[in-house]
Design goal:
mainly alpha, single chain
């Protein structure tokens, strides 16, 4: 299907209006974008139809935007700024991601054991629960100009968390496939999920850095950087299509590595001036990505949510908040990170819905009946959790004292 650009522009324009309305009501604009996505998506007004969401051209556009959003992440990963807390980020990523997997898996394995459902389904829930949707929390960072230990920890962790989620999920699927179809996920696939985006990002970032060092024109450099995003995204698409058994490479990781490479090879003053011009583009990426997160969510599921959904939301929150607190304690992170970082990790749709689709496709034959349990629980949790998570993320930044701590780009 050919995506109608006028229809897409109308969706984006309405999304902006919803965002402005949310801001007028003293709510985060990202909540307006999410609600707009649900209201305009296939389960409501159907302006953003399922055919559009499934169209290859639209999926490629979203992939490019995700890669572009990586600019915000990578350009903050300048070694001079990061060396004081880089190890903390890695430790917290491990504890909050694995902690979430353990808590959610344990809860559902126990429930399924008592109800006669195959216990390995609990591992699927745990594997999916790791994933965080970074766009909503990062959108709050941009909207409210947050800065401080929580913000600086969240920015690199946002992508590393999803990489950990995909790696753990693939490990889980290697167990599940042995149970359901006698198949397996090769171990090297987990390494490729990390290796390919990092390799592509570095391969594009190095020549772009060389071009940037030869120019002192901020506008020209901004164009060069954005062209590099297209190149990095295109190479990641090719790797997804021709080198992976299913498209699971993380475009934000590619964008993060790409921008981290050139950000560390040019003067900080040049980087700041150039990225100020890229900020509106990154904001546009956020808007459409969040609209896309909201579009598949069916608000009717809120009324149909049952016990599994409630257990999933609570167990995931315990894993994320508790795991982040433990990691912060172990790594000696500031008290605000220990207390409030976990609140910014609640957004969940996006990658989780992709992983859900992969999991359901693995439940074949006599196990296909359990696909509805996975689909219904995760879909309902995504709707409920996404609305709650936006408020929790903003509250976390507020309690940490980081709202408005960064100077707005225009000032």
């Amino acid at each position: 299907m050919i995506v109608n650009p006028l229809r897409l522009l109308a969706v984006v324009a309405l999304g902006f209006l919803f965002g402005k309305l949310a801001s007028k009501l003293r709510m985060p604009a990202v909540l307006g974008f999410l609600i707009a996505g649900m209201a305009l998506g296939p389960n409501a007004a159907n302006l953003l139809t399922q055919e559009i969401l499934d169209a290859p051209a639209y999926e490629r556009l979203i992939s490019v935007l995700e890669c572009g959003m990586g600019l915000m992440l990578g350009t903050e990963m300048v070694w001079k700024r990061m060396r004081s807390y880089g190890k903390q980020v890695l430790v917290i990523t491990l504890t909050e991601s694995l902690g979430t997997f353990v808590v959610v898996s344990a809860m559902f394995c126990a429930i399924f054991y008592m109800t006669g459902v195959p216990v390995f389904l609990g591992l699927i829930f745990g594997g999916i629960a790791l994933a965080t949707a970074p766009a909503p929390a990062l959108s709050i960072v941009t909207e409210y100009h947050t800065d401080g230990p929580v913000t600086r920890t969240l920015i690199p962790l946002a992508v590393l968390d999803d990489v950990a989620a995909i790696a753990v999920f693939l490990g889980v699927m290697s167990v599940v496939l042995k149970q359901t179809s006698g198949g397996n996920v090769p171990g090297y696939l987990i390494l490729l999920v990390i290796f390919f985006p990092a390799l592509i990002g570095a391969a594009v970032g190095m020549p772009i850095a060389a071009l940037l060092r030869k120019s002192d024109n901020a506008k020209r450099n901004a164009v060069i950087v954005l062209l590099g995003v297209l190149a990095a995204a295109g190479l990641t698409m090719a790797a997804n299509a021709y080198l992976m058994p299913f498209p699971i490479l993380n475009f934000m990781l590619t964008g993060m590595v790409y921008s981290a490479v050139f950000a560390n090879r040019i003067p900080e003053q040049q980087l700041d001036g150039m990225m100020a011009l890229c900020t509106p583009v990154i904001g546009g990426c956020f808007t459409l990505i969040i609209l896309n997160l909201g579009a598949p969510l069916d608000y009717h599921l809120i009324l149909d949510a049952g016990l599994f959904t409630a257990v999933y939301i609570v167990a995931r929150a315990v894993g994320k908040i508790g795991g982040a607190a433990i990691g912060a304690q172990i790594s000696g992170a500031p008290a605000t990170v220990r207390k409030y970082l976990g609140f910014t990790l609640m957004p969940h749709s996006g990658v989780s819905l992709v992983l859900t689709g992969i999991a359901i496709s693995s439940l074949t034959g006599s196990f296909s009946q359990y696909g509805d349990i996975v689909r219904g629980t995760i879909a309902a949790a995504a709707v409920i959790n996404e609305v709650i998570a936006v408020f929790l993320a903003r509250k976390g930044f507020q309690l940490a004292g980081e709202l408005g701590a960064a100077k707005p780009p225009q000032e």
